[in-house]
């Protein structure tokens, strides 16, 4: 029988690995049974560690050690039921010569889908050849047929007929003219991304090499989380309370408690307000046009999460921040685009989108989301596949039903954020959406772009989706235009997706073509996805 080696990349945080291990173990049992039904056997490449209470690869060091013992030409399955840090397995995958298959569950509660998409995007950037599959129960025909094909031939191919290259499309001349003019001005004037520590959570796919970014006219200012924290300490309590009072006056609600370890407290929110002020002042000092805060490792051990600050930064209507010396309001009347988890691909997209939407006269608020889950929804007057997009931070209140007044601050899960901090929880309003993803492939910047609709579903379904995912986080229900679940999964090269609203269908099409033309002029390989 053919022997297949199985590896599982996990989190860096012990608590997360321990909590998530039962879900991973249950998924692996189903995967092993499926492989055995197909006539092969599975050898787990690294054992469960009773001292740690999990069986994940939890560091790059451990991943390299494990791959040394795997025959270089053996078939390898990377099985993911949860979020993971891709750099735990990427060094081994980059030198492995045998067939590689990435696998994920299909679950809202256990985001293996998100973890696998990050591995796929990172492997694509690194030039690693791989196949990919996903399943709810690992017994369906789609998965079983694909697995048998991979075991026999070493690869699986999927339908990506929904994708068309920019040159194959007819771009309206007016939109093309706007996009080309915008791109040439951006390249001539240049812009700066403030990168507050690169490589968040091992997301290799989220780092754009300078030699690819700089020709676009965008450059990095590399900053440190310690610098942000030092600037936070210089912010006065008075200034922090002014930001908090501004939010409350706008109608935002916070679910406060008294236990710092498990509940949201006013002090946590005030620390987040200090981070918001410090981030704006730091960005201004270095001339940044957009910023990204890593926030996960290091900073999370010093201060509450950055999510409240991120959402405010991405909103045009936000608390004023003043220069400490001159008293000048910084970035007055503007959003300061923030790219969550220092995802530079999202940062470049956000910068271009924000500025181009201002040229078009559209609301420029934009954000990334995790591609968290998806399911077919049938209810009164609605029958379609819905993607459930969520992100812990960065979602601007302008995207939410009711704006600030419709937003609730809830404590981040203690498993990930020991010092807490509020999110900006809310449901995205209905409307036309342009979605996109910038990614690196074949040593070149690429961008997939398409149209969609943010759907307003019955409250009972919305609450169910929060219950089945992460109830503290903002959420969008996205319906893509003529793209099936499996087509999107086969093509998408990231755990993240960028979204921005347009006022109506005509405006959405015009904006999409203008953005595509701008990216094309900047040398990005643009692909239209779905019906445009």
Low-confidence stretches: none
Query: Which class do the helix and strand fractions yield?
Result: alpha/beta
User: How many β-strand runs?
Assistant: 18
Strand content: 15-25%
Silhouette:
globular
Termini gap: 48 Å
Helical content stands at 25-40%
Count of separate DSSP helical elements: 15
**Biggest sheet overview:** 6 strands, antiparallel, barrel
Sheet with the most strands: spatial strand order = 11-12-16-15-14-17
Mean pLDDT: 97
Rg over CA atoms: 22 Å
Task: Summarize the topology.
Elements: E1 2-7, H1 14-37, E2 40-44, H2 60-68, E3 76-80, H3 90-95, E4 100-105, H4 112-126, E5 131-135, H5 141-153, E6 163-165, H6 173-189, E7 191-196, H7 210-213, E8 218-223, H8 225-233, H9 237-249, E9 253-254, H10 266-285, E10 290-293, H11 307-313, H12 344-360, E11 366-379, E12 382-390, E13 408-409, E14 431-441, E15 444-454, H13 459-468, E16 475-480, H14 485-491, E17 496-502, H15 505-521, E18 525-529
Parallel strand pairs: 1-2, 1-3, 3-4, 4-5, 7-8, 7-10, 9-13, 15-18
Antiparallel strand pairs: 6-18, 11-12, 11-17, 12-16, 14-15, 14-17, 15-16
Helix pairs in contact: 6-15, 8-10, 9-10, 10-11
């Amino acid at each position: 029988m053919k022997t297949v080696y199985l590896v599982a990349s996990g989190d860096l945080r012990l608590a997360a690995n321990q909590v998530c291990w039962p879900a991973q173990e249950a998924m692996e049992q189903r995967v092993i049974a499926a492989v055995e039904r197909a006539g092969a056997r599975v050898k787990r490449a690294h054992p469960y560690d009773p001292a740690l209470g999990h069986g994940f690869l939890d560091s790059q060091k451990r991943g390299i050690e494990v791959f040394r013992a795997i025959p270089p030409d053996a078939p390898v399955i990377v099985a993911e039921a949860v979020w993971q840090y891709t750099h735990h397995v990427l060094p081994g995958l980059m030198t492995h010569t045998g067939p590689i298959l990435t696998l994920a569950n299909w679950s809202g509660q256990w985001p293996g889908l998100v973890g696998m998409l990050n591995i796929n995007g990172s492997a694509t950037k690194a030039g690693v050849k791989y196949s990919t599959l996903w399943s709810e129960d690992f017994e369906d025909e789609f998965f079983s047929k694909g697995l048998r094909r991979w075991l026999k031939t070493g690869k699986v191919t999927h339908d990506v007929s929904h994708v068309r290259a920019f040159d194959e499309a007819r771009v309206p001349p007016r939109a093309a003219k706007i996009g080309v003019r915008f791109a040439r001005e951006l390249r001539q004037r240049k812009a700066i991304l403030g990168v507050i520590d690169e490589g968040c959570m091992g997301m290799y796919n989220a780092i754009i090499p300078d030699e690819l970014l700089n020709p676009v006219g965008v450059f990095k200012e590399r900053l440190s989380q310690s610098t942000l924290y030092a600037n936070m300490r210089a912010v006065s309590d008075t200034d922090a309370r002014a930001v908090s009072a501004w939010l409350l006056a706008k109608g935002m609600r916070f679910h406060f408690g008294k236990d710092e370890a498990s509940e949201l407290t006013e002090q946590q929110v005030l620390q987040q307000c200090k981070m918001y002020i410090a981030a704006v002042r730091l960005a201004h000092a270095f001339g940044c046009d957009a910023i990204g805060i890593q926030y996960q490792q290091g900073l999370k051990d010093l201060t509450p999460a950055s999510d409240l600050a991120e959402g405010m930064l991405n909103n045009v209507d936000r608390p004023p921040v003043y220069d400490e010396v001159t008293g000048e309001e910084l970035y007055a009347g503007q959003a300061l685009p923030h790219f969550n988890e220092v995802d530079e691909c999202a940062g470049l997209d956000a910068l271009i989108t924000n500025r181009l939407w201002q040229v078009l006269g559209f609301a420029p608020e934009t954000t990334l989301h995790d591609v968290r889950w998806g399911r077919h929804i049938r209810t009164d007057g609605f029958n379609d596949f819905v993607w459930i997009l969520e992100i812990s931070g960065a979602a601007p209140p302008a995207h939410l039903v009711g704006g600030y007044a419709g937003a609730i601050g809830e404590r981040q899960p203690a498993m990930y954020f020991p010092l807490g901090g509020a999110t900006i929880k809310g449901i995205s309003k209905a409307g036309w959406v342009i979605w996109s993803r910038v990614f690196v492939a074949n040593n070149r910047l690429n961008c997939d772009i398409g149209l969609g609709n943010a759907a307003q579903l019955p409250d009972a379904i919305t609450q169910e989706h929060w219950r089945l995912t992460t109830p503290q986080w903002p959420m969008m229900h996205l319906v893509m235009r003529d793209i099936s679940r499996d087509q999107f999964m086969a093509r998408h090269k990231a755990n993240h997706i960028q979204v921005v609203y347009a006022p109506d269908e005509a405006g959405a099409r015009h904006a999409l073509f203008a953005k595509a033309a701008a990216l094309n002029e900047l040398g990005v390989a643009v692909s239209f996805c779905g019906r445009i």
